[in-house]
Design goal:
Lysozyme, single chain, mainly alpha, 6 helices, 63% helix
């Protein structure tokens, strides 16, 4: 698990995306299962759909890259950053990432943001106990 957290912080720094938001997406999408695969073919920690992101996968040798946790987090973060920039808002960007852009209640974004808040509280407790 520590490797996933480190990978999320590296990807967050590299792509200017909140690492806790990345980890929240991982939690919602795959429950931190690096070999998760959906019925639609989404793969890995961030449940990237290969058919929509061949350009990003080609740089890493193709679809198999999605089963490498570090690459999956990096590729997923690039996609998330693209959607956040395209929509101009965290909630809308998350909805687009979750394939639910037109869903009016924004349930996907709500789940991710709730998980992010939970992770933030956990991180604060860890930091207090380390002090």
């Amino acid at each position: 698990m520590g490797g996933f957290v480190a990978a999320a912080f590296r990807a967050g720094t590299a792509h200017r995306v909140d690492p806790l938001l990345i980890l929240a997406v991982v939690a919602v999408e795959s429950r931190f299962n690096p070999v998760a695969e959906s019925s639609l073919g989404a793969r890995g920690l961030m449940q990237v759909l290969p058919r929509f992101h061949q350009d990003k996968l080609a740089e890493h040798g193709g679809d198999a890259a999605l089963l490498d946790p570090v690459l999956n987090i990096d590729i997923g973060t690039r996609i998330l950053r693209e959607y956040l920039r395209r929509t101009g808002a965290t909630e809308s960007g998350l909805q687009m990432y979750g394939g639910a852009f037109d869903e009016p209640s924004a349930q996907y974004a709500g789940k991710v943001l709730s998980e992010r808040a939970r992770l933030e509280q956990l991180l604060a407790r860890v930091r207090r106990s380390d002090a």
